[in-house]
Specification:
The chain has 275 residues and is α/β, with parallel strands linked by helices. The protein has helices at residues 13-20, 42-56, 60-68, 71-81, 100-109, 122-134, 173-182, 201-223, 226-238, 242-251, and strands at residues 32-35, 38-41, 90-94, 114-118, 141-144, 158-164, 184-195, 256-262, 267-274. It has a seven-stranded mixed β-sheet, with helices on both faces. A two-stranded antiparallel sheet has the order 1-2. Strand 6 (158-164), helix 7 (173-182) and strand 7 (184-195) form a beta-alpha-beta unit. Helix 2 packs across helix 9 and helix 3 (60-68) packs antiparallel against helix 8 (201-223).
Length: 275
């Protein structure tokens, strides 16, 4: 028996517009945020990040393979293996981009389950949808263009939420984490896969040299946008390290957080439980 999409998947156009609108809290009007190494008005960051991803959407997967020598696929495979999803469950992939994580989760929940692929960027969401169709995954996938800071889904709608290499692009990370915590069912878990701090000083030095010099040049040659990949490298350096991210997740309401360091800490998987 095929499981019907829960009410959480049916959101109104009005709700969608509200989630895509800028924060209008007067207390936040003078708020600042980092866009790479630059400090900018917080209200401007989402649009600036959007331009980056619109620019690179068509070459996004190719660049991921080249930059990581294919390792990003192994990192995502490991993250998906920690989902504890079963057939018939519901999962959400936030900032899902080209759908790498969503495809893995969709295969785990099967035809009886549902996966929502959410992204604030229309160009990336279109790439993800096309790749899902090419992979033959249509019946158990829903798509939503919405802001990670204010997800357009009902409370407690999902057994698992994932976000892979997307949190550092969010303006207010704590708001996004709290939003993901809200949509998890009791006993659900968040899979947060993100670049982090290498554990060994020598590895950190090698990684810094590679990322600061090679990746922007590669972005210019392959994706035609060196500045976009310079931003992506800079955003990694501004991202909280393993312990700071764990503390942030606990602060917004996750009841337990465990950390798995991958590739010597270049990447970390934080798993947060909602009891």
């Amino acid at each position: 028996m095929t499981r019907r999409a829960p009410a959480a998947f049916h959101y109104s156009t009005a709700n969608h517009r509200n989630n895509m609108s800028a924060h209008t809290d007067p207390l936040r009007q003078n708020e600042r945020a980092f866009f790479g190494n630059r400090e900018v008005p917080a209200a401007d960051k989402a649009g600036m990040v959007g331009e980056v991803f619109r620019s690179v959407a068509s070459r996004y997967d190719l660049m991921n393979d080249l930059m990581s020598f294919g390792a990003h696929r192994l990192w995502k495979r490991f993250a998906a293996s920690q989902s504890a999803l079963r057939r018939g469950d519901c999962a959400l992939d936030v900032a899902g981009g080209s759908g790498d994580m969503a495809r893995r989760l969709a295969r785990q929940v099967g035809a009886d389950g549902m996966v929502a692929l959410a992204d604030i960027n229309a160009a990336m969401l279109e790439v993800g949808r096309d790749k899902m169709i090419d992979a033959g995954l249509c019946g158990n996938i829903a798509y939503a263009r919405c802001d990670a800071e204010k997800l357009c889904f009902a409370d407690g709608a999902f057994d698992c939420v994932s976000i892979a290499f997307g949190l550092r692009n969010v303006t207010r990370m704590e708001d996004a984490l709290a939003s993901m915590r809200r949509v998890l069912r009791p006993g659900g878990r968040l899979l947060l896969l993100e670049f982090s701090k290498p554990l060994l000083p020598l590895l950190e030095k090698i990684y810094d040299r590679y990322s600061l010099s090679v990746i922007p040049a590669l972005g210019g040659a392959v994706a035609g946008d060196e500045a976009a990949y310079r931003y992506l490298v800079e955003s990694i350096r501004k991202h909280p390290d393993q312990e700071a991210m764990k503390e942030m997740m606990l602060r917004v309401g996750f009841d337990e957080v465990r950390v798995h360091n991958l590739s010597g800490g270049i990447v970390a998987l934080h798993i947060g439980w909602a009891y």
